[in-house]
Amino acid sequence: MRSRVFAVLVSRNASKVLPRTLEALAAGTKRPDTIVGVDTASSDDSANLMREHVDTVVKLRSKLSYGQAAAQGVAELPDAEDGDWLWLLAHDAAPEPDALAQLTSSAEANRHLAIIGPKVMRVGDARTINEFGQTMTPFGNAVRLAAGELDQGQYDSRSDVLGVAETGLLIRRDVFEELGGFDPALMTVDAGLDLGVRARLAGHQVALQPRARIQRNGGPELFSARSLSDASLTAVRRRAQLHRRFAYANAFALILHWLLALPLALIRGVGHVLAKRPAALISEFSAALAAMFGFRNITNARRRIRTTRTSSWTTLSSLRIDWRTLRARRRLVGDDVVENATDADDLVGFAQGGALWVFAFALLAGVITNIGIVTSARITGGALLPLGSFTDMWSGALFGDRDLLGSFPGPADPFSVVVALLGSLTFWQPSQAIVLLLVLAPALSTVTVWLLVRRLTRVVWAPVVAAAVWAFSPSLFAGIVDGRIGAVLAHVTLPLVAYGLIRARDSWRGVATGSLALAIVLAGAPSLLPAALAAVAVAAIWFLTRVRPGGAFRAVAMLVPAAALFTPLVWAHSEAGHWLAALADPGIPLGYDIPDALVLATGYPDAALATLSPLLSGMEIAGTVWPVWLTIGLAAPLVLAAFAAPFVRALPGVAGVAVALTGFATAVAASRIAVAFEGDTEVFIWTGPGLSLTTLGLVIAAMITIGVLAERSAAVNIIVTLCSAVTGIALVIGAAMTPSVVQPEPERSMPALVVAAADEQPHVGTLVIEPVGPDTIRLTVVRGQGEVLSDVQTVNTTARQPSEATGDLSQFAVDLVSGSSMDATETLVDAGIGFILLRDASGAGESLYQTISRGLDERAELQAVGATDAGLLWTSDAIGEYEPDTPAWAWWLLFAQLLVLLLALLLALPSMRRGARKRVRRAPEARKDFA
After folding, report:
1. Helix (H/G/I), strand (E/B), else coil: 551
2. CA neighbor of 683 nearest in space, from 797, 790, 597
3. Which parts of 692-804 are beta strand (E)?
4. Do 839 and 868 form a contact (C-beta atoms < 8 A)?
5. CA distance readout (Å), 275 to 232, 271, 327, 503, 649
6. Is the pLDDT of residue 201 over 80?
7. Which of 502, 506, 505 is nearest to 517 (CA)?
């Protein structure tokens, strides 16, 4: 009985290449018994084109992968009979006239064959092999046995192989159904190889037919994409490889592979960087994470193999390629790479475009600026305190006691969660993460702004100019010098927020990336909250009215992670009737020289011109208005280029200028609003984040202008780059000349006796008394081995009135040092305070220091320890137990916040499409049309 052959043609948005494939099918010397066309939610005329040439068209509303769509087409065929064959084709695979005849002749000649693969040639170059057979290395790496070589018949004697191309193959229908079709998790790359491996394990044969030739317009990775960047292709290939490795390994090897996936990603990423492919570094990690957490995909793949396997894995050994043969092949024909030059991403490369040089100089600048702390494990000073231990960080991120006396419960700052996550990267010494941040911040800034600008222009030098301007921004270096790590993190991640808003039009991945960046930005610089809300609102309205309504929803969704972090804090401030307190800078309140609008126009966040002060102090122009005008002159080329943008490209130019003006207005407003207190002194919101936003807007707009003028003249980008270089050199030299505010923390910030007691009682309290004037003292309660950053929360620093317990303690301290006859033991025990430390004083506070010292020496209930490095120390006769008052639900609140961040992170990572996670079956939404 004659065997039936059914062809399944799968198409997606292929109106340009599909006619060629349909004409080739019609010209075949052997016609399939039935041709089923499957259109996967095309937005062009693909379905109508197929109706004119095929027997049945199945139009799907879901964008399924090639393998899943092929399975839907097979489901529409008549009932199966013995001897039925399936010929699976993608829209870009045009068979030569005798291709099907040659394939079926092989099937008739050898009844044991289950899969037969053709020789895939390049479109427009019928003499060059695109793909002819696939195999694996001993580690499971996919290798094309022939690719990019001139066809001289050198491979025509090859027959038995491990796998074939997924398009153009002829497969027995009963084998296809037995194996469950293609693996849904392998949407493009390695789908044919995996099908061949499973067929071999099920006891079937896989072979090649060199006389059956098909011309293909690209590789399998291009079925649903017009082009792929090198980084994207790396991610696709690596994810497919890891998925197969997890699916093929035994139970013990599976655990080992899973644990080694991330370390191997780091090692392979270093190799990519050395090969001048830095973008592939991120692809390695994204592919590893996507494969590692695709538990359902792995489970289904392993189950399919287990239920159909009848042969041992050792039977495949002879069909694998050994390392010696692979090395010899690479010496002859090179690595197995995609041979379609048009598939390369023509956007600017990080290394090729020159941004790598800016990265290197920015890294050097970060080292020079932080030369005093580069080798330090713990740092303090400015707005910064040490992070403490791993436990300290995460305890500080909980809703709980904020006055360290048990009477003032309140939420943690959103920045406490960000700092805890950051410190967890170096969990053995969390403060090292802060050191790395301050050192690497300029270099990291080059990467984030490059990712943004490369989306805006294809001009080679535009991202390089942007990287130079952004990395050497005065607001960034001022934040580094002052230890304002929140503002530094905000500066580094701000470009990713803009990137997310741009991608909100059509990409959830871009939105997720932007939402995480926005959460970090607002946590580190809450003063940008009004600007962020305005930007999201404008973007949402624009998408809703002018582009795509779905983009509006995605733009608003960018606020979700930030809302999860900020809601408890905003609620607490609203209950206190102090809404503006939500805009307070995190960390220790740190005053600065308030600038006027003219100084802010220079891009410098304080009246002292940040780190330029020491550089200018020895010049004759110091103290005059000339430094301000000089800095304005350096910024002028960037500003002029930015304000020219609306006249060359209206929409993006206006958007960039609007962002710059919003940032400038934010900086001016910040310099007028005081919400925090350092003692009795009001501290104004820092202007740095607003100026960072201003710089970002200017960069976006200026790069538009540079992109348009690039073909006519390179003068603009040269001038802007030179001005940025001069500014950067001046900032770095000034920072090197400035006495560092941030210093390595001493080995102990508290006396040794306190540290020893804290080892046994982690929350033991020390009442620190510091004379700051002839009749003024500053009181602080320090728990454990010293004050850490998580002890400083904005609900405290912005409080207009001290808590009840703090007020009582203040009165107690006054009575204590004034010689009152009251017994202090009970109060100290109730507060869990075991020590009293009197800090050294000088000048106006010297006489008060002596008075307090004498008063404490006279207290019978206190034992004088004596002088220490931290000051004079007394200990109480009895030390009470103190435990932070943390509600039981505080951990659930933190868990919910982290869960939102994790979901956003998973959404930001490349992942399988929803359809790939479903079992293949006839789609209920399918609609059949008959030609």
Report:
1. helix
2. 797
3. 743-744, 765-771, 777-783
4. no
5. 16, 6, 19, 29, 37
6. yes
7. 502
Residues in contact with 850: Cβ distance below 8 Å, sequence separation at least 6, in sequence order: none
Q: CA-CA distance, 832 to 757, in Å (whole number)?
A: 12
Our CA angle for 735, 738, 740, nearest 5°, is 95
pLDDT above 80 (res 106): yes
Strands 833-838, 777-783: pairing kind:
unpaired
Q: How far is CA 759 from CA 591, 764, 785, 798, in A?
A: 35, 9, 8, 32
Cα angle vertex 503, ends 497, 508, to 5°? 95
Nearest CA among 928, 930, 912 for reference residue 64: 912
**Under 8 Å between Cβ of 4 and 33:** yes
- What are the DSSP E strand ranges found in 709-798? 743-744, 765-771, 777-783
Residue 170: which H helix or E strand, with range? strand 170-172
- How is residue 240 written in tokens? 């497919």
Among residues 286, 302, 330, the alpha carbon closest in space to that of 143 is found at 330
Closest of 570, 526, 778 to residue 677, by C-alpha: 778
Tell the burial category of 889 from Cβ atoms under 10 Å away from its Cβ (0-12, 13-18, 19+): exposed
Give tens-digit pLDDT for 131-148.
899 999 888 888 888 887
**Per-residue confidence (pLDDT) for residue 611, from 0 to 100:** 59
What DSSP letter does each residue of 659-682 carry, written as one string?
HHHHHHHHHHHHTT-EEEEETTEE
Pull the structure tokens for residue 185: 């998790």
> For the segment 499-556, what is each residue's pLDDT rounded down to a tens digit?
999 888 877 788 889 999 999 999 999 999 999 999 999 999 988 887 777 788 888 9
**Distance of alpha carbon 880 from alpha carbon 833, whole angstroms:** 7
Q: 121-130, 157-166, 422-431 — which is least confidently predicted? A: 121-130
Task: List phi, psi (to 5°) of 212.
Answer: -90, 115
- Specify the 3-state DSSP secondary structure of 881: coil
- The secondary structure of 488-507, three-state, reads HHHHHHHHHHHHHHHHCCCC
- DSSP label at residue 184: T
Q: Which residues pair with 833 in a beta bridge?
A: 765
Tokens 């790396």 map to which residue?
234
Q: Which two tokens stand for residue 54?
A: 């095929």
Report angle CA 124, 127, 133 to the nearest 5 degrees: 105
Please report how many Cα atoms fall inside a 13 Å half-sphere around the Cα of residue 904, on the Cβ side: 27
Please say whether the beta carbons of 670 and 693 come within 8 A. no
927 vs 430: CA distance, rounded Å: 58
HEC per residue, 457-497 = CCCCCHHHHHHHHHHCCHHHHHHHHHCCHHHHHHHHHHHHH
Q: What mean pLDDT value characterizes the chain?
A: 83
